[in-house]
Structure formats: C-alpha cells, structure tokens
User: Fold this.
Amino acid sequence: MQSRKAHNGFFYFKYGLNLVTLSGLKRFIIIPLLINIILLSGMSYWLFYQLRHWITSFISWLPSWLQWFDYIIWPIGILSIIFIFCYFFSIVANFIASPFNGLLAERVEIILTGQSLENIGYWAIVKDIPRMMKKECRKLVYYLSRAIIIFALSFIPVIGQFTAPVMWFLFGSWMISIQYCDYFFDNHKIPLRDVLVILNKDKIQCIQFGSIIYLLTLIPIINLFVMPVAICGATAMCVDRYRPYLIRKIK
Assistant:
C-alpha cells in the first residue's frame, strides 16, 4: 500500500481512517485503544464534577466591577478548561501507551514503505522504555513552559478571556501534532530538539492535522477511538513529508 504525496494535514487524518481498517494493524491497535477508552472515561467523569467548582472559583477572583461579566466568562472559561483538559488527557494516555503506539507507528511505516526498521520490535521497545519516558518528560517541559505564558495572559481582563480559548486551541493543536508525529521520529531515534526543528518548518500543516484530532477529542464516544487514527495519520504524514529528509541526513 503506497501513501500519496504532498498533501495537507487534513488529508492525513482521512488517510489515517483508511489505515486503521487494515487487517495487519488491528493487533497493534487494540492495546492503545483500550488505554484510551479507560483513561478518557474516568477523566471525563471526574472533569464533569469539577468544572462548575473551577469556574465559580475563577469568577470569585474577579474584581467586583467585573462580576456582571460572568455570563460571558462562563462559556469562555469552560472552553479554556476543556481545551486544557483534552491536551493533558492526551499527554497521560500517550505517556502510558507510548511503547504500544511506537509499535503501531512502526507497522504503519513498514506498510507504507515496504522496508523494515532496524532494532525495532517488542523486546527492543521494552529496553528503550527509559529513553522514551525521558523524552515524554521533555515534551511535557516544553508544553508547560509555554502553557504558563498563555495561562498568565488569560488573566488580562476582557482581552485575555476572549483570546485564551483561541491560544489554547492553536497551541494544543501544535502539541498534539508533535506528540503523534514523534512516534515516527522516535522509531528513528531522532531527539526532540531535531523533531521540533523539522516540524517548525511545516507548522501550518502540523496545526491543521492536530486541530482535527483536538476537535475530535471534544466529541463524546468519538474521542474514545481517535488515538489509533491519529497515530496512523501522523505516521503517514511523516513518511511522506519528513522521511526523505531523514534519509538524506543519514546519508
């Protein structure tokens, strides 16, 4: 099965949907899918009971002359919290499932290129878990160092409340794209700093792809099944757009 070339991020989500139906991938999908379902179900239940308390507390911090503004702050605050929650859920789910997600990305790359990867497999993945976990922590630091700035800006009266949901969405889309594309790069042992350089050159396409995944995580039921599709689509995008770069670099 050959991947098509020179397409945008929207195309690769649709392509990911096609890939997950292949019989050769089903056994690599089941474990990440179960992890996603269990975590999302539990965390969504918890968020439902915490959301009202968080928004009420936020409004109580506002000066008295802005209290009348709560009818606008409520929907904006809810959107901001949901955007943050969805990305953090993605971090947790991918952190736990990262060894299995790497195997799925490997299998997709083999199907698309017809070439096996060296030193990849169940045992190799197990031995590589410490390095993978360290890289996941570095991604978390990258996220937090920028999320703190957006969080601080959200406290600017009026302007911050309106712009924060947009900033969270765009930044979350970018981070989700990094997260899912990195399974491909990690199978080639590419360090995070190089991954960021490569993806920054293609940022619009990455945000396009990440935005679809981000929006789908907001939709009940559908969000339970988005992880395998995202991995397949992101790997296909990397094979088409970035693998030639890695081959040239190796040579």
Q: What stands out?
A: Residues 11 and 209 are 8 Å apart (CA to CA). The chain has a mean pLDDT of 78. DSSP finds ten helices and no strands in the chain. The radius of gyration is 19 Å.
